[in-house]
Known about the structure:
The protein is an alpha+beta fold and 456 residues long.
Amino acid sequence: MRNEETIKQLLDAIGGADNIKNFEHCATRLRIIVKDDQKVSKEKAENVVGSKGYFFNTGQHQFIFGTGKVNEVYQDFSTFVGDREEDKSNFKEDVYANLSPVQKVVRILADILVPLIPALVTTGLLMGIRGLLLELGVNFSADWLSMFEMLTDTAFAFLPVLIAYSATKKFGGNPIIGIVVGLMLVAPQLPNAWAVAGGSVEPLKLFGLSIVGYQGSIFPAIIVGWLVSYLERTLRKFVPQIMDLIITPFLTITITLALVLFILGPILQTAESAVISSIIFLVEAPFGIGYIIYSALQQAIVITGLHHSISIIEIGLLNASGTNVLQVLGTASMAGQFGAAIATAFLMTNKIKRSNAISAAIPTLFGITEPLLFGVNLRSLRIFASGAVGGAAGGLLTYILQLSATGMGITFIPGLLLYTSDFGKMIQYILVILISFAVGFICVQLQRKAIIKEIA
């Protein structure tokens, strides 16, 4: 077993194998839920060999190992510990039991939206490729442009279908019924929401309400998933089994569609528009104040785990304006923390600690910041604050340049692909990263004596 020493130290830190209630892993972290948190030694947990950081959040003791490495450690951990009394499939239930109501809502949204990110990232990359080809002067016929529009627009046009499927699956309903209702929300018989917004098409008038399609809508589709799941469970309590195959789907689809189209949908669309407008208003506050605040604190949002919900706002921004400034500001926030972490690594005299710090920082280049945050920057408030100042500087520059992305889901170096259609904007994007990095780096250097004492 390659990670035997790591596993032994980890078990010692959490109070032994008998104290384990459940465990799982994500892209970078081994997550452990224990029976008695009082038996966990924070000091030992922070010094587990091979771990790049430790923190406790939402009832989970989380050890940072990084992409790839965490899978290896998890397998060895599972082999060493053996089967738990609890069913490993109930890990999410154990997690939810430790969450506050607000955290539960955020986690539900994340569980619904995160599976969609690969599709949205792919769409963003395809937009970048199309923009690059056009920038290089490639001439496309109308047919080829239509083909590219199919590749780049489909995911957003049918976004309610994807969300309805994911939400129905999350809430325990029949995902196929969720897909059917989602398709009805964007059916060609309903006036296209974007066409109505552009003034080229009039909405349907039913019961005195203006009815349009739900292209790009988020919350109505989530409600669809919940309603489908709830109605299925409720109807099966009194619908005879012999009629279940016909009656339950029929009533589920018709009731859900009626509620969404005529009651909940219009309300949610209005509320969704108001929330997006409020975020846009904040970001567009005078003198770049919103940009500065967001880019300074975006990584603090990552610490809380609320960053998954940002995708909702990004999707709304893209649907509303076709651009996404949060991608730039998020990258600036990452670059500031990256600069602070690299500067801190250079202050470390211990070669092993310096190597670990640099290793924890490298994934940030690809948009993964948890190893950096929990392994380096959060060890000292001065380091994290330095990174926040760097992010704020990048946010101010973003405001001055009026820079924004045309996609979402990728940041830092991969985010360059979102700017291939405009070489000038790509240079500006790189400049934002460099300024954020430099300011974060310099702020740490200005406090080097105090920080050395804290990390020694």
